[in-house]
Specification:
Elements lengths: L1 E3 L5 E5 L2 E2 L7 H11 L4 E2 L2 E2 L11 E4 L16 E7 L24 H18 L3 E3 L2 E3 L1 E7 L23 H15 L19 E4 L4 E2 L5 E6 L5 E6 L1
Parallel strand pairs: 2-4, 3-5, 6-7, 7-10
Antiparallel strand pairs: 1-2, 8-9, 11-12, 11-13, 13-14
Helix pairs in contact: 2-3
């Protein structure tokens, strides 16, 4: 999994399993992954079966409207690894005309655009924090599915041949701008530590998900020895 922050390099995350496909011995596979590369954040199962104490984040998939997240693990950042899937058939621009499939049919360019805007608003509100059973979880990321049609799936914002854009681009741009600016505000995040020697027993990552010895300028992610995680701005 590679996630893109709007003004920073890509974040590389190891993801051994996707949506329960062939998922087995999750804890052991995560341990093996960490042995191969201990510098990266590990997403044990994107949209799959979750196990407390395994991996670094919880990743849920949902195509519901409104967006519903229902897994409680207050010790890990919560990620929406797949959402959206706003389908629209455009005849003559599909990879497989006879058997093209939709996650859901939005009927028109206006239908896709309006629903995308509605999802963007929901993501913005989720970014302000989610409470499960009295515990406030850190909602950390959302990944839209999908930017273009891919072979039999016609759920993209653009057709498979890249000839037709299936949304009103100015409205999508504005929805993304609001979502990014709101959820990227870290001015209220307190700095837990400024010196590496104060982080004994904890693990520190930079925004790219690489393990580091000392805080770096910008956003840092601190994984505490007790299993909790926090993010903070260091200047």
């Amino acid at each position: 999994m590679i996630a893109q922050h709007y003004n920073n390099p890509c974040i590389v995350v190891w993801t051994p399993f996707n949506e329960r496909w062939g998922q087995f011995k999750t804890a052991q596979v995560v341990d093996l992954t960490r042995q191969q590369d201990s510098t990266r954040i590990i997403n044990p199962a994107s949209g799959g079966n979750f196990h407390r104490g395994v991996g670094d984040i919880v990743d849920l998939h949902t195509y519901s409207d409104p967006i519903v997240l229902n897994f409680d693990d207050p010790e890990k950042p919560l990620v929406l690894g797949e959402y959206g899937g706003l389908g629209l058939n455009i005849e003559g621009h599909r990879w497989y005309e006879c058997f093209a499939t939709l996650y859901n049919d939005n009927g028109s360019v206006e239908g896709v655009t309006a629903r995308y805007e509605r999802y963007a608003d929901q993501i913005t509100r989720l970014g302000q924090g989610i409470t499960f059973n009295g515990h406030k979880a850190c909602f950390a990321a959302a990944i839209y599915t999908q930017t273009t049609d891919v072979e039999v799936e016609v759920n993209g914002l653009m057709t498979y041949d890249r000839e037709v854009v299936k949304v009103f681009e100015d409205r999508i741009r504005e929805a993304n701008r609001k979502m990014i600016e709101t959820n990227s505000d870290v001015t209220a995040i307190d700095l837990p530590s400024q010196r590496g020697e104060d982080l004994a027993g904890d693990t520190l990552y930079n925004l790219q998900g690489m393990r580091i010895a000392n805080p770096v300028a910008g956003l840092n992610i601190l994984h505490r020895a007790d299993g909790s995680s926090v993010k903070f701005m260091y200047r």
